Amino acid sequence: MAVIAGREHPRAIAKKRKQLEDRIKQHGFEQTMEAMAHTWFNRLVAIRFMELHGYLDHGYRVLSHPEGKPMPEILEHAEHVHFSGLKIETVIDLKLAGNKESELYRLLLTAQCNALHTAMPFLFERIDDETELLLPDNLLHSDSLIRKLVSEIDEEDWQEVEIIGWIYQFYISAKKGEVIGKVVASEDIPAATQLFTPNWIVKYLVQNTLGRQWLATYPQSALRQQMEYYIEPSEQTPEVQEQLKAITPTSLNPEELTLLDPACGSGHILVEAYDLFKAIYQERGYRAKDIPALILQKNLFGLEIDDRAAQLAAFALMMKARADDRRIFDGEAKPNIMAFEESKGMDAAEITYALNSPINKEDAEKGHVSQADIASLLELFEDAKTFGSLIQIPPKLATRLPEIEKRLDDVLKHGGDLTHASAHVLKPLLKQARLLAQTYYLVVENPPYCGSRYMTPSLSVLAKSTFKAGSGDLFAIFVLRSIDFVKPYGFMGVVCPFVWMFIATYESFRRLLMTKGTFESMVRLEYNAFEPACVPVSAWVYSICPPKPHLTQFIDLTEFKGIENQAPKTLEAVSTPSVPYRYSADCSEFLQIPSASFAYAVSSNFRSTFSSNKKLGDLAEFTGSQNITGKNSKYVRLWWELTCLNIGEDKRWVFYSKGGGNRKWWGLLEDVVDWSLAAREFYRLNKTSNLLDQRFWFRPGVMYSMLTSQQATFRLLPPGAVYDKGGPAFHPATPELSEVLLALCNSAFADRVFDVLNPTLNLQVQDVKSLPVANVDKQKVSELIRECVALARNDWDTSETSWEFQRPPVCQHKTAVLQRSQEDADNQCIRRFDRMRELERENNRIWIEAYRLHGELSEDVPNDKISLFLPDRLEDIKRLLSYDIGCMMGRYS
User: Fold this and answer.
1) Rounded to whole angstroms, how far apart are CA atoms 656 and 720?
2) Of 601, 526, 536, which Cα lies nearest the Cα of 568?
3) CA separation for the pair 12, 498 (Å, rounded)
4) pLDDT tens across 60-111, in order?
5) Residues 553, 207: contact at Cβ < 8 Å?
């Protein structure tokens, strides 16, 4: 017996307790407890799935009862269930005792897990170690984990194996909430970055990679009818068609097709790919009983840093195989799912010495593994739980892997205890190195998402040194790494945030992708259409080294709000190519655009305007960085909060453009900023502030609002003001040029360009600088814009927030009848709006004509697209008139 904390326990408990103590010392208490909790959670979820599908050999339910009784069915039939290592006499004695149900159930549950060890060692390790100590108590209580697992998830929800992934995501959701928005520690990366992929997106990715590969060789295959999300390839030019014919194999061996998910999570993508591989084998006439094992052994591969997620992914694949082959548990076939293991604490010299020790007389004269190779292998995987699939195997080491593996097999077969121990330590590292070193026909992934500011220091260094073009986010780094995983002419399917398609941070990333391959198709989702988090994503299929030019199919769902609309609208676009939200474009033409943005929704001629005209950035000065006070609550005020005598270019306070609002031509200059010497010194020296370059102080120009919730709006910036990043400005050389560029920026053409360059809410300086400027009649445009500015200024000055405000419109009409005065004010406002409409239409017409976009490009820039300077301004004025007008008339008379 062993005495622990004053209580007697079986002697075996002492050994297990020591193992648990050692594990806690190595990994810490919280991480150890969390890992143990995950382990038991995975086992219970797996048993629940298996008992509902009838996959347990004894035929009884282990966690529930088919008749809804509170006690699990296996307790009723305990004496009839035979588990290796569990004595039937012990079972009978506990059952007859009448008060030992909990002890008996604990034995049965442990024995069931051990019985599943042979079939699924990746999930059901033999429970004779420290994990047994942490099996929860009170398993039969009404509020136990098992009772909740049974009662809170309906049995019909367990029909599809995808339930495993959804349960796991919700299991880690609390942890995700704790770590999101922070620098993520290595052990928290899975919780912070994992996101379960909706099934319809997985179908799109798998059908347009694996399905596309198959149909390229066998275009008449009946599989086409089974792939509802398959997008027919674009009609290419005859030259491209000939090139495609030359690189497309005339036959494919299903056993040679390989698909990798480098961040497989709980295996949703691999499970979907299993079904399509199964259909391919069936079409080729394979025997049904051979197919499941072939898919597990030859076709599907998954890599993951999270042990528990990898366990569930492997389990999900085993369940797919078990549904097709009831003897799969008895065979040798196991999923090729690898949870990365680290090499911390391993000694290369010791391992090399042990592996090179002679295992027989003939072996003593053979050459063996080198310490340099072993040291290189250990160094690669020192932080494997952080880097995962991003690790790259050097070519020299990759060529040595077969030799090392052969030595490992010899040692395991013929060596002694010392060499066995070293071989067992090295074997998983060698396996993950082999998976990382090989290439695959297909890579399909939902890579982890994590912005650069939240990466660990080591991950940040790797991103900047090895994957610089994608260093803005972990998903982009994974995409670049995955390109190297794909064989030439293979396919890659990805779902990730769509910000990379437009914003300046990812320009190098875009250019690199368009250089290394081409996009076959893309589905861009509506902004909030990805549960459970609001992540704006796109799903796309990419081919390596295809012929160019190459047409790509785009489906844009951004106008269809709501998660429930995304899949149906995609199916509609797949079956009806003529829908207005499906486009075809040559991605190489995107390189004509300064930012290389994905301008798929406009014509080729529209894209060419970027290369055939000067850029706005060539005709005006832009500051490198705007003013930042670092403390607006202290240094920024609204002008009416101060005395007018203290505002002006030579005073303490100056007008300050901060953007905000949707207003063109004139206005929105309501803020003032402290511009005293002391304040400017603070802006210059404070770490979170920035002082605007002095050559831009008080200069006239054109200002705009960076935040564009509706559209981009530009206004004249009068002399005597400065600006911050929310209301940036640019400075043309002359007032006339300011008017011309203001006219362009407020045109429907510019609005379309900005939407093409960056359809996010923030209009970047680079987007404005990239606006192409065509030749127009400058005098005619200036005259037109002066009237626009005058109308907008007149309207702005009717508001009390304007510096030039004098009296409300209703008080500007000399009439004794209040009703007449209000009508006159209304009519004047309406006339102003009508005239503004005429002017804006004419401005649009001038620029559309200048870019030669009539007729052919009416869909690119509608000629009647009128963006008023403030569409709801009339209603604002009417609300103003609802005040005590009589009092106001007396006040301003």
Assistant:
1) 9
2) 526
3) 55
4) 999 999 998 889 999 989 888 988 888 888 888 888 887 888 888 888 988 8
5) no
Collect all residues with Cβ–Cβ distance below 8 Å to 716 and sequence separation of at least 6.
665, 666, 700, 701, 702, 703, 738, 742, 789
Model confidence band, residue 196 (pLDDT cutoffs 50, 70, 90): low
Give the Cα separation of 254 and 273 in Å (integer): 13
- Closest alpha carbon to 752 in 880, 631, 848: 848
Q: Count CB neighbours of 345 within 10 A.
A: 9
Query: Residue 402, Cβ neighbours under 10 Å: how many?
Result: 11
Distance between CA atoms of 289 and 279, rounded to whole angstroms?
13
Task: State the sign of the Cα–Cα–Cα–Cα dihedral 552, 558, 559, 563.
Answer: positive
CA dist 129 to 15, 41, 110, 779, Å?
8, 17, 11, 87
Angle among Cα 127, 128, 130 to the nearest 5 degrees reads: 90
Q: What is the pLDDT of residues 227-257, one digit of tens each?
A: 999 999 888 888 888 888 888 889 999 999 9
d(CA 893, CA 398): 90
Residue 277 pLDDT more than 70?
yes
**DSSP for 74-93, written as a single string:** HHHTGGG---TT--HHHHHH
Q: Which of 347, 445, 315 is nearest to 390 (CA)?
A: 445
Rounded CA separation 7/9 (Å): 7
For strands 551-556 and 517-524, give the pairing: parallel
Tokens matching residue 599: 């301008």
Answer for the pair 708, 754: CB distance below 8 angstroms, yes or no: yes
Q: Give the confidence band of 671 by pLDDT, cuts at 50, 70, 90.
A: very high
CA distances from 847 to 342, 636, 737, 741, 872 (A): 61, 38, 15, 11, 26
301 φ/ψ angles, rounded to the nearest 5 degrees: -140, 140
Angle between helices 101-115 and 29-53 (to 10 degrees): 80
Average pLDDT, the chain: 84
Q: What are phi and psi of 339, to 5 degrees?
A: -90, 125
The SS3 call for residue 552 is strand
Integer Cα distance of 494 and 483 in angstroms: 11
pLDDT at 453: 85
C-alpha separations of 388 from 178, 225, 384, 446, 591 in Å: 22, 37, 5, 14, 32
3-state secondary structure of 791: helix
CA distance 832 to 812: 15
Instruction: Tell me the C-alpha distance between 450 and 180, whole Å.
Output: 9
Q: Give how far Cα 610 sits from Cα of 413, 753, 800, Å.
A: 67, 10, 42
Q: What would the mean pLDDT of 42-50 be, rounded to a whole number?
A: 89
CB 113 within 8 A of CB 131: no
8 A C-beta contact, residue 39 and residue 308:
yes
- What length does the chain have? 893
Contact 497, 537 (CB under 8 A): yes
Please give the sequence-ordered ranges of beta strands (E in DSSP) within 503-645, or none if there are none: 517-524, 537-544, 551-556, 582-586, 614-615, 620-622, 636-638
Residue 696 burial (CB count, 10 A) = 19
Give the tens place of pLDDT for each residue, 800-838.
788 877 666 656 555 554 555 556 666 777 788 888 888
Rounded to an integer, the average pLDDT of 466-487 is 94
Backbone angles phi, psi at 793, to 5 degrees: -70, -40
Is residue 776 within 8 A of residue 844, CB to CB? The reply is: no
Q: Determine contact, residues 113/129, Cβ cutoff 8 Å.
A: no
Per-residue pLDDT tens over the stretch 585-610: 999 899 888 889 898 988 888 888 88
Q: Do the Cβ atoms of 264 and 270 come closer than 8 Å?
A: yes
**Predicted confidence band of residue 425 (pLDDT cuts 50, 70, 90):** confident
